[in-house]
Amino acid sequence: MTVVRHPGPAPVRHRHWPLCRRCSGLALDLGSARTRAFIAGRGMVLDVPTVTFPGSGAVHPIQRGTIVDTPGTARMLDRLLGHRVPRTGRPLVVVTSPVFDGPAFRTAARTAVEVLRPRAVLTVPGARAVALAAGADHVRPLLVVDIGAHLTEVVLLADGAVTDARRTALGTADLSDGTPPELITEAVVGMVTAMLRQDRTSLTRTALRRGVLLAGGGALRPEITGGLPSGLNCPVQPVPSPHTAAVRGAAGLLAAAHHHPPADGAL
Q: Domain locations in the chain?
């Protein structure tokens, strides 16, 4: 008896991003001051204040790196992106998240993003997204300093994973309230010094010899960054377009996931 084996269905060949509707993708950076979004095939489509309008005034649903109003964040995303997401496909969404309060932020972000009908939601630490945008070597230890509008984080990465982190509830927005820029500089130096003292390995020291990668809007403020090289006693290198580095790194992950659709989870 001859057995005839019928070949299974041919694997689906993915088309390029603008044409592959079932593989549409969206990268989000939900900051306390700015919300940035990148749609695959279209590039950056949003860089706007993080506000919602439930009544007569504006409300900030994300404060100091914490989503304090999940329904408000969902309304904001629906208003800003609901009409931009293709109705014929469900997007893969990659969301950057702060290192601290990560689990709570990720849970709230996934709930808010449901308004966009995603097929999967992935989260990535903002520092890792910055490193990806900079094309940094992930094998060697790397220190990322992200100075945002309301939050400053210092994160140690090793093999692409977060191994230590510090943060302070200070950022560039505080300068308008009379906070001296030197206070942010000193906070960064203090956080790195604390990491050095508490690190029982050589990872932090090795990363400092390599130099610090600087991101966030604060990287564009010389009154903050000018004292960092001498305070840290190491080179300090801003990433290109540091205020959008996180969302660009998240967008890079969309391209990597295009041919290998992942399940929900953290990157």
A: 21-128+245-266, 137-242
